[in-house]
Amino acid sequence: MSSRIPGFFKLSVDERRAVVEERTGLPEGALAAAGERGLDVVTSDKTVENVLGTYALPFAATLNVQVNGREVIVPMVIEEPSVVAAASNAARMVRDGGGFVAEADPPIVVAQIQLVDVEDAESASERILARRDDILAMADAAVPGLVARGGGARDLVVRVLGEPSDRMMVVDVLVDCRDAMGANLVNSIAEGVGDELALLARGRCNFRILSNLADRRCVRVTCRVPFEALATEELSGADVARGMEEGSRFAELDPYRACTHNKGIMNGIDAVVIATGNDWRAVEAGAHAYAARSGRYSPLATWRRDGDHLVGKIELPMALGIVGGTLRVHPTARLSLAMTGVTNAAELGMIAASVGLAANLAALRALASDGIQRGHMGLHARSVAIAAGATGDLVERVAARICELGDVTVDSARAVLAEEQARSDKDTIAVAE
Ligand code: NAD
């Protein structure tokens, strides 16, 4: 299977569905069914509270992605124009350098048990560590289904927090969540061992919940892009690569730039996380906390020239699941997962991070050459045309015209639309006469 499908963007939606079904082995008609229905209102009403309906977003495919030699057509759910096109385009450049090379940590998530009113934190730590095996067994007893699948509590770490006057400590239980995102599982463990830990600490158990800073569950992805793949009409690949490396340094040195750099990365990652029914708030929280781990907010991905290649690297926590959570109820999320062909959660994390790196590559290349607006406004122009009231063929015509005019605004689109409509009215009259 190849995820490279030249001319894919020119096909109709139905034709695209047929190609993706054929390439990914999805049953014929599966994308039409799930892609259009999504989550129904009855199920939604059972999922969250005070439901009024459902809310649809575009569901699209990023092409050209190769992770550790495997081809993937990546499902994306996103409303922002140009992200899917940019990621697909960047992934094609990465293919020229051998695709993305990725690795993932074991799926360890931390259950935190806060202990307060602890008189003597040092001796409390000793008593807890002396009972380590019993506590881990108690933790496992809270999640028998996970243990049956090879997961469960692996270790615990005791930390004293603040000053002695705070009388506070935290016990972190490290839990192997296998293919689940793990929040509910880990919370069950935190609640399962909290009282026993409080007894051992001779204090009181307060908060018991997972940490979303899943820094023991990171993925790392690298890619090598040949300079020639980066060239534009005006600039050589070497010049673009130099500008991209300078842009990477900018983000490494300035948190104001790092924030926007990381936003571009999360454009790609969130879209995959949402499409596959995962908790994007958890991934976002983990990513940004990780970006600030040194005490200064930093870029999640960096770029350097190496000979005649530009090398990109990304590292971030990726607590994703391919079981449980939203996947129980959302048919399109299940279909998205099937589309990726992943067999475990780590693979999904590596794909999401690869798409994040692709999105970053696209943004940095644009910033180092034409600027972000040319490509972005071209695609954004279609939404502007729709906002101005264009429908059908008029969307493309109005979008193209406001781009030519260099005025991608709703006012300009309205004026162009009025001209186009007047012209087509005249044509109709002419034909009628
Ligand atoms: P879950 O509650 O659905 O638990 C996963 C289930 O899948 C378990 O019953 C487990 O036994 C089973 N399972 C089957 N096959 C498995 C396999 N191969 N590996 C692991 N488990 C397997 O889901 P969860 O992952 O524990 O929690 C995720 C949900 O929790 C998300 O919906 C998230 O939004 C929500 N949540 C998040 C937070 C947070 O991030 N702070 C807090 C609370 C809840």
Description:
The protein is an alpha+beta fold. The chain has helices at about 15-25, 30-35, 40-45, 85-95, 120-130, 130-140, 145-150, 185-200, 225-230, 235-255, 255-275, 280-290, 330-340, 345-370, 375-385, 395-405, 410-430, and strands at about 60-65, 70-75, 100-105, 110-115, 150-160, 170-175, 205-210, 220-225, 300-305, 310-315. Strand 1 (about 60-65) and strand 2 (about 70-75) form a beta hairpin.
Task: Please provide a brief summary of the model.
Helices cover 51% and strands 18% of the residues.
Arrangement of strands in the largest sheet: 3-8-10-9
Give the CATH architecture of the largest domain: Alpha-Beta Complex
Roughly what is the average pLDDT, rounded to an integer? 95
Bin the helical content.
40-55%
CATH class of the largest domain: Alpha Beta
How is the topology of this model organized?
Blueprint: H1 13-24, H2 30-37, H3 41-47, E1 59-67, E2 70-77, H4 83-95, E3 101-104, E4 108-116, H5 121-130, H6 132-141, H7 144-148, E5 152-161, E6 168-176, H8 183-201, E7 204-210, E8 218-226, H9 227-230, H10 237-253, H11 255-275, H12 280-291, E9 301-306, E10 309-317, H13 331-340, H14 345-368, H15 373-387, H16 394-405, H17 410-432
Antiparallel strand pairs: 1-2, 3-8, 4-6, 4-7, 5-6, 8-10, 9-10
Helix pairs in contact: 4-14, 6-8, 10-11, 10-14, 11-12, 11-14, 15-16, 16-17
Bound molecules: nicotinamide-adenine-dinucleotide (NAD).
Keywords:
3-hydroxy-3-methylglutaryl-coenzyme A Reductase, Chain A, domain 2; 433 residues; 51% helix; 3 domains; Alpha-Beta Plaits; alpha+beta; 10 strands; four-stranded antiparallel sheet; 17 helices
